[in-house]
């Protein structure tokens, strides 16, 4: 019936209201008066889902008939963030929904707050994958995101007595209205056992894998809408299930545990996300997870190809597959296995196709983050893959020997197998050899990838190496997070096309000195600071002053990101205030956010130090009028959306050469925060774009760091050579921040004075002086706001749309397939 159709997919306020009440009744089985906040959220979610499904089905039909070349993004992490508001913005009905909500007397913010965040990622890498999915749809590139549907995502962080406490993330507890289970899309995943040779029907010698254990992977689909386009792409996440979920024989003999053993064993594979953004050696379950989602995804791609296009010959013409770091690198060996063992292809044909299909992105230079797996673990878990990797390596090393006669040292350095000590498989080498393109995620990082990490590979295949500087989606991190700013930009630009074409915000530049815009700009920032102040008071009890400068550092806690350098500056301010050395100080609120990997002791001690400093500073009447410190618990996409709009100063202070790119730096700058930072990762390109005069730079360059490492770095010389630095560290050791316990922070201060691997002491002085320049600049609000406007106006390049367009053009060779609205 026409009437029926309309309410479920109509975009009018009336249709939304009717559909909301219908869904509340037909799906939640509730009427308005007795509905719980969760019921109201689910009704809103289903009302939104009804409208995106219409687009999704239309899109899927078009892609199917068009056989469009499709990008498959293989990632162990997708840090999606809450769906509701983002989908309403991408459907273009956020305002209409808010009006409909008002007329139904709904508290829109409370409904949004109800949504559990799907925390299927650790940090930068996982969030980048989510931003890329949003931009792939908006740029109308046909794509499928493949990953794992962890039952438990990244832990929820609570702060108790200043310490991080991990709480398990039960994001699925109340159901997930944004996914559609696909029980019929399931694939067997093999483990263990042995391989054996046999002769196929034409007497050809072939290999087969006889596994000792098989589980099933089942698909769960989440539609990913584009903004202002008809295109909807697919995020397909795999859940592990036992092929036989109940063993009746065991049950009949009373072995009840045995009856469900297989089910429990299988489900552990997709049970939980590994909470570290640095690998923990040899975690067998982690390798099982990687093989699990890679095998399901490649089997699904082959099924889609056979069903829509036909024989596999042009598989690499129809699919490009991006390896998001080395976590899915097994795909190189798994595609070889599937093409040869299951589809009877020759080695050479399979290898040609494999190398033409895969592309690999490196996200970190940290040696401890480069995954290697022991050969013995592979022998036990993935014997067929080991055989294939050995053969890939044999042929690859032959090529090296041909090219670099007699250079056995080069052969040893480039081999897929590390022979020193326990034999281990270098997953990064497998990814580079098995891919047609390798890229870093920022200009400096991509140069360092070529000159250090993959120096030998760059010498062999210079044409393989690219750079694609990261980006972030302006939909979530401007329009959804900061609607006041979005409205002001639209008003100033006279259109909202900037949301899909961020270069258009450059129009703000010419208004940067207009007192009218400046006044509105300040009002928008102050309103966001008030919202954050109120919320932080609610969750931490700490009262901030919205008029103070909000100085924010929010990212995973890691020594290379140097949250402890930030803490030393706070202690410096405290000391100078206590000693009355600061004339008319600029009030500051120091705001931190970030999770530490549960096993990372020093990172957890840094969180404790920040909270310990906060306790002393915030309760000291001599200073708390000028400075406050707060650690915001549970930094994730949802809480991040409160932080980015409220920041005045964005801390991007990693040791040069360590942060591959950073993406938080882009989100803060796009919301009008000025950056204090080093020449690291994408900071360089942000500084180039916004103008050197609109960026607070300090510290050593990556070259300086390399030089200092070569000449030998002696942190104690800085400790003894700078009396303020010594005073700040000694104050920590004095026990002032630890109720007199002089030992609590010793592990941290001893490491700083004796090792300091990330050269905190070497950059201390420059950092302190730069912070003084920041305070001076903040006094001149007119100048500060002008810089803030120019920062936003010149951030167009850092949209993930630009990054995706570069990948599509320079690496994937995929043209947009427009689906009209
Ligand atoms: C558990 C193993 C592990 C190891 C490394 C990683 C990632 C590579 C770490 C990561 O998130 N890297 C960050 O990637 C961002 C997106 O490119 C960059 O902006 C950050 O600079 C980089 O640290 C996750 C998990």
From TrEMBL:
A GO cellular component entry from the record: cytoplasm
Domain of life: Bacteria
Keywords of this entry: Carbohydrate metabolism, Glycogen metabolism, Glycosyltransferase, Pyridoxal phosphate, Transferase
InterPro entries: Glycg_phsphrylas, Glyco_trans_35, Pyridoxal_P_attach_site
EC number(s) per entry: 2.4.1.1
Cofactor(s) annotated in UniProt: pyridoxal 5'-phosphate
Keyword Glycosyltransferase applies: yes
GO terms assigned for molecular function: glycogen phosphorylase activity; pyridoxal phosphate binding
Protein name (database record): Alpha-1,4 glucan phosphorylase
Broadest EC class assigned to this enzyme: transferase
Residues bearing PTM N6-(pyridoxal phosphate)lysine: 667
Species lineage: Bacteria, Pseudomonadati, Pseudomonadota, Gammaproteobacteria, Chromatiales
The species this protein was found in: Thiorhodococcus mannitoliphagus
Family from the record: Belongs to the glycogen phosphorylase family.
GO terms under biological process: glycogen catabolic process
Chain's role: Allosteric enzyme that catalyzes the rate-limiting step in glycogen catabolism, the phosphorolytic cleavage of glycogen to produce glucose-1-phosphate, and plays a central role in maintaining cellular and organismal glucose homeostasis. Phosphorylase is an important allosteric enzyme in carbohydrate metabolism. Enzymes from different sources differ in their regulatory mechanisms and in their natural substrates. However, all known phosphorylases share catalytic and structural properties.
Pfam families: Phosphorylase (PF00343)
Catalytic activity reported: [(1->4)-alpha-D-glucosyl](n) + phosphate = [(1->4)-alpha-D-glucosyl](n-1) + alpha-D-glucose 1-phosphate
């Amino acid at each position: 019936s026409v009437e029926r159709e309309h309410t479920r997919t109509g975009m009018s306020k009336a249709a939304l209201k009717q559909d909301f009440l219908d869904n509340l009744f037909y799906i939640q089985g509730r009427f308005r008066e007795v509905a719980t906040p969760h019921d109201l959220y689910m009704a809103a979610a289903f009302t939104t889902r009804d409208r995106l499904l219409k687009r999704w089905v239309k899109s899927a039909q078009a892609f199917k008939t068009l056989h469009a070349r499709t990008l498959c993004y293989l990632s162990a992490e997708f840090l999606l963030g809450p769906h509701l508001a983002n989908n309403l913005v991408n459907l273009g009905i956020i305002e209409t929904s808010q009006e409909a909500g008002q007329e139904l007397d709904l508290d829109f913010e409370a409904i949004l707050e109800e949504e559990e965040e799907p925390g299927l990622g650790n940090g930068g890498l996982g969030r980048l994958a989510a931003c890329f999915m949003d931009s792939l749809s908006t740029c109308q590139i046909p794509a499928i995101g493949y990953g794992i549907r962890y039952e438990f995502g990244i832990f929820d962080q609570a702060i108790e007595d200043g310490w991080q406490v991990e709480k398990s993330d039960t994001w699925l507890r109340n159901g997930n209205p944004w996914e559609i289970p696909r029980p019929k899309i399931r694939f067997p995943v093999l483990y263990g056992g042995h391989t054996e040779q046999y002769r196929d029907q034409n007497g050809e010698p072939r290999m087969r894998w006889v596994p000792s254990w098989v589980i099933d992977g089942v698909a769960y689909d989440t539609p990913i809408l584009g903004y202002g386009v008809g295109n909807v792409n697919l995020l397909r996440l795999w859940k592990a299930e036992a092929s036989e979920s109940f063993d009746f024989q065991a049950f009949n003999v009373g072995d009840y545990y045995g009856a469900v053993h297989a089910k429990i064993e299988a489900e552990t594979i997709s049970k939980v996300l590994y909470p570290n953004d640095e690998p923990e050696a040899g975690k067998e379950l982690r390798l099982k997870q990687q093989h699990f989602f890679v095998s399901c995804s490649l089997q699904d791609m082959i099924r889609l190809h056979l069903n829509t296009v036909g024989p596999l010959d042009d598989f690499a013409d129809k699919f490009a597959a991006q390896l998001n770091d080395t976590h899915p690198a097994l795909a190189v060996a798994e595609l070889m296995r599937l093409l040869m063992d299951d589809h009877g292809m020759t080695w050479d044909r399979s290898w040609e196709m494999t190398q033409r299909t895969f592309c690999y992105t490196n996200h970190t230079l940290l040696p401890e983050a480069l995954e290697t797996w022991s050969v013995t673990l592979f022998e036990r878990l993935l014997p067929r893959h080991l055989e294939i990797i050995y053969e890939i390596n044999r042929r690859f090393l032959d090529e090296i020997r041909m090219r670099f006669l007699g250079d056995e040292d080069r052969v040893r350095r480039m081999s897929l197998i590390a022979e020193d000590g326990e034999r281990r498989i270098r997953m990064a080498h497998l990814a580079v050899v098995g891919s047609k393109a390798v890229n870093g995620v920022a200009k400096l990082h991509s140069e360092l990838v070529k000159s250090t990490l993959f120096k030998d590979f760059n010498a062999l295949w210079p044409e393989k190496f690219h750079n694609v500087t990261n980006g972030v989606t302006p939909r979530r991190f401007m329009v959804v997070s900061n609607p006041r700013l979005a409205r002001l930009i639209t008003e100033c630009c006279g259109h909202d096309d900037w949301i899909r074409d961020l270069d258009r915000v450059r129009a703000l530049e010419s208004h940067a000195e207009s007192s009218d815009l400046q006044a509105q700009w300040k009002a928008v920032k102050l309103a966001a600071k008030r919202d954050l102040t109120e919320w932080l008071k609610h969750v931490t009890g700490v009262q901030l002053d919205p008029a103070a400068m909000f100085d924010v550092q929010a990212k995973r806690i890691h020594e290379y990101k140097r949250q402890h350098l930030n803490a030393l500056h706070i202690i410096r301010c405290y000391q100078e205030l206590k000693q009355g050395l600061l004339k008319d100080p600029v009030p500051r609120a120091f705001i931190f956010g970030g999770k530490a990997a549960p096993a990372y002791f020093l990172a957890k001690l840094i969180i404790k130090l920040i909270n310990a400093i906060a306790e002393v500073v915030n309760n000291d009447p001599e200073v708390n009028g000028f400075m406050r410190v707060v650690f915001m618990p549970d930094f994730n996409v949802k809480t991040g959306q409160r932080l980015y709009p409220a920041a005045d100063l964005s801390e991007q202070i990693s040791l040069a050469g360590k942060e591959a790119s950073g993406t938080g730096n882009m989100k803060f700058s796009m919301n009008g925060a000025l950056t204090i930072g080093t020449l690291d990762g994408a900071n360089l390109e942000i500084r180039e774009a916004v103008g050197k005069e609109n960026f607070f730079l300090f510290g050593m360059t990556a070259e300086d760091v390399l030089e200092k490492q070569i000449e030998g770095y002696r942190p104690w010389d800085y400790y003894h050579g700078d009396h303020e630095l010594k005073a700040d560290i000694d104050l920590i050791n004095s026990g002032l921040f630890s109720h007199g316990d002089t030992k609590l922070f010793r592990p941290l201060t001893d490491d700083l004075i004796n090792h300091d691997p990330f050269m905190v002491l070497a950059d201390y002085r420059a950092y302190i002086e730069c912070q003084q320049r920041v305070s001076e600049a903040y006094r001149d609000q007119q100048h500060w706001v002008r810089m803030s406007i120019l920062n936003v106006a010149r951030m167009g390049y850092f949209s993930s749309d630009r990054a995706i367009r570069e990948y599509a053009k320079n690496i994937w060779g995929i043209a947009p397939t427009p689906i009209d609205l």
